[in-house]
Design a protein that fits this description.
- The protein is mostly helical.
- Among the domains are: about 70 residues, no CATH class; about 55 residues; about 45 residues, no CATH class.
- It is built from 14 helices and no strands.
- Helix 1 runs antiparallel to helix 4, helix 2 packs antiparallel against helix 3 and helix 6 packs across helix 8.
- It is elongated and about 85 Å long.
Length: about 270
């Protein structure tokens, strides 16, 4: 089967400059591999070229890093939803490769991580859980990895059809809404389309405010007065329980600890 070819970002000037800068101090096979990739780019060739650069015995480490950075930057959109591998080693390799470039690459990384997590492929390397795999294998933080995984779970390839025209992180405030069981599929679909359409038109703060309005609408967050009312009722229940039940020394110490903690928090709070 012939390899698929994809349209590549037309931004090769930097790569050509870097190649020219180091061509006299790199092995011949490294130079040939980079030149071949420029002429006929494929995802497999990107991976092979990065490996050849890493194995070059002449190139200084700083030069290798600079060349690899340009390779990733120029050929990132060879990786997409249609060519996500099935094999664990390939999934892991691509997830690591994609973890330090840009938001598009983080979406591609997340798709690959989702397969690794759902199929528990991390156990192939002896990891006890997915979190341990993330912390040991990737260049991004655990929080970043999980955020982008949730984006892929909720939006799928709709993200890629936007072709990097938005900040994907702007969609994070509505993830909890889309994962809630309080909404039906129709409402979720409408919310997805609405926020995808508005990403370029609104600031992050505007999006957060709109997301909070939806959360209040669907009962996912309570307004301040309702929260204070609930706290008041629960506090009265606690006092009633203490008054009407025997307390051991351990219980008293525990409750005093809670009271002291609440008191410290209140003392450090600014009045509004």
């Amino acid at each position: 089967m012939s390899k698929k070819k994809f349209v590549v970002i037309n931004n090769r000037g930097n790569l050509s400059n870097v190649k020219q800068e180091f061509e006299k101090i790199m092995e011949e096979k490294t130079l040939e591999k980079i030149s071949s990739l420029e002429i006929e780019p494929t995802k497999d060739k990107v991976e092979e070229t990065i490996q050849i650069v890493n194995e070059d015995t002449i190139l200084p480490e700083e030069a290798k890093n600079k060349i690899i950075k340009e390779l990733k930057s120029n050929f990132i959109n060879l990786f997409n939803f249609e060519n996500c591998p099935e094999d664990y080693e390939e999934l892991k390799y691509e997830a690591k490769l994609l973890s330090d470039i840009n938001q598009y690459s983080l979406i591609m990384m997340a798709q690959r991580l989702l397969k690794i997590r759902n199929q528990k492929l991390y156990t192939n390397d002896g990891y006890r859980d997915f979190q341990e795999f993330i912390e040991n294998e990737l260049l991004v933080s655990r929080r970043t990895a999980y955020n982008y995984i949730e984006l892929v779970e909720c939006f799928g390839d709709k993200l890629i059809k936007l072709e990097n025209k938005i900040e994907y992180s702007k969609l994070l405030p509505i993830i909890s809404i889309l994962k809630s069981e309080s909404l039906n599929d129709f409402d979720k679909s409408e919310i997805k389309d609405k926020f995808l359409d508005e990403m370029n038109k609104k600031s992050k703060n505007q999006i957060i405010e709109e997301a909070n309005q939806l959360k209040r609408k669907y009962g996912l967050i309570k307004d301040k007065n309702k929260v204070l009312f609930d706290i008041d009722n629960r506090f009265l229940d606690i006092i009633k329980y203490i008054e009407n039940n025997e307390m051991s020394l351990k219980d008293k110490i525990l409750i005093n600890g809670y009271i002291e903690k609440i008191s410290n928090i209140l003392n450090n709070k600014k009045e509004v």
